[in-house]
Automatic annotation (TrEMBL):
This is Motile sperm domain containing 2. Residues 317-331 have a biased composition (Polar residues). Signal peptide: none annotated. Keywords: Membrane, Transmembrane, Transmembrane helix. InterPro entries: CRAL-TRIO_dom (IPR001251), CRAL-TRIO_dom_sf (IPR036865), CRAL/TRIO_N_dom_sf (IPR036273), ER-organelle_contact (IPR053012), Ig-like_fold (IPR013783), MSP_dom (IPR000535), PapD-like_sf (IPR008962). The chain crosses the membrane at residues 524-548. Residues 285-344 are annotated as: Disordered. The keyword NAD does not apply. It comes from Coturnix japonica (Japanese quail). Residues 130-272 form the CRAL-TRIO domain. GO terms for cellular component: endomembrane system; endoplasmic reticulum-endosome membrane contact site. Residues 301-312, 332-344 have a biased composition (Basic and acidic residues). Residues 358-476 form the MSP domain. The keyword Membrane applies.
Amino acid sequence: MATPTRVGHAPRVTRRLHRRFFLSPCAHCGRPRRTMADQQDKAALIAETRRRFEAEYLSDKSDKYDSRDVERLQQDDKWVENYLIWRHDVVDDTLKMIDESFQWRKEYTVNDLSESVLPKWLFESGALFLHGYDKEGYKLFWFKVKLHVRDQKQQLDKKKLVAFWLEHYAKRDHGKPLTVVFDMAETGISHIDLDFVRFIVNCFTDYYPNFLTKIVIFEMPWIMNAAFKIVKGWLGPEAISMLKFTNKSDVQEYISGEYLPPHMGGTDSFKYSYPPLVDDDFQTPLCENGPITSEDEPESKEEIDTDTKEPGDVNEEQNLNQKKMNSVEQISKSEENDKTEFKPKNAKKALTTFKGPLLHISPAEELYFGSKETGEKKCLIVLTNVTKNVVAFKVRTTAPEKYRVKPSNSSCEPGTSLDIIVSLHGGFSASLQDRFLIMAAEMDQSSGSGVPELAQFWKEVPRTKVMEHRLRCHVLESSKPSTLTLKENALNIPAKTNEDLHMQLTHLLQINKRLQEQIDRCLWFQQLSVVLSSLSVTIVAFCFYLAYSQRS
């Protein structure tokens, strides 16, 4: 058998030094990582891998691979490097892994997987999703085992869902590794699907190189010990070391409480729902990509659009812009009046506020935009710094092309409040799938709050010190005066429809009915117990009486 080939056929001693120098383990998780080593050697390894793959696996011009993967392999150095790292820089093993993973990617049409391709119920089930971070800052990939039902007819779709999530994250975060969490609370043997578990394991060991930090298994029932012995047999020694069996008392060694649900001993109030996709890609809104226009200046894109419109359309748009400007002016005046006329206790009753450790954020959950008919396109977010230091914040959105946010990257002084205006850009309208992410971190007193200082601060701040809060978008269908909508958004007064109230009332009545049935059942059993107890006492007393009579 031929000796595994390395670049330049280096002597054995050189190869050992190469392994030590090039693949020092990570201090946190023990995964192999490259140090600041000889960049020429790394480039040579990548070039050798590409050359040999083209010569040995693409020579027959077969169509067993997706051409997009082949093209990416030739262009993406990081991708090739991850394959090499995962196979310890052994080029022969690396080529085999690339071959197997590329064939798998084509079989599962990984490059074409999307929400529209997969059944909607898969996303709605909530068995698989991305949410939160572990203590080392790696993304968490959750598998709620109790929500998984074994069904061979659905197996292929479920496997494609796993591939969709992994590819979705790999492309978004450029291959940054993640941590898998098997939440096995309230599970039984009926939920275990070894074929599906093996598929998930194979995704990390064979198809997604250098993509796994650890597998956290929470509260595995003892009855499944035998099953997981089989799983361990599928893993190599390195992968076995990544298994972390935990329970409620020690899971926070790996994941902090802020990203753990209450049943795992955490404080994360997150509840899965779909749509939209959980943890979508939050990006920089438009206002950071160019100069920020003032409230009384028309936006540049809108100015350009008016040049191509008919005179009648221009006049209508000018009237609409004038109405918006008047609306904002009236709102600002009304806010000033509120400060002097309203009592603080009345304002507090109207506010719904998320109370975070660094910032209080109002509204707490949803931004209310008007429908196309109302034309209201602005919302207000109020941040209040509750610390003794300056707090830096950033605002991100899943739809950066639609929204302007002012300010979107700034700081808030201790004990003060700051208003953020979110406005729809151009002819866009708000969608229920749109979300906003507010990130905040406490700054040292010596740190400056200018643009360069903030940019440097966000590069250096550890993720564990960053507070995150998400806001959903809600579109109001009922028409309201435009001058009132922004103020109501700031106070977050939700407009409950009769249908919503009816559904809630019906739900409460059903719960009440079930409770009443349980109470009636308990009372019936209680009465039956009393009758049986009385009967037993009577029989015992009668037996004693007969025994006493016979003796006398």
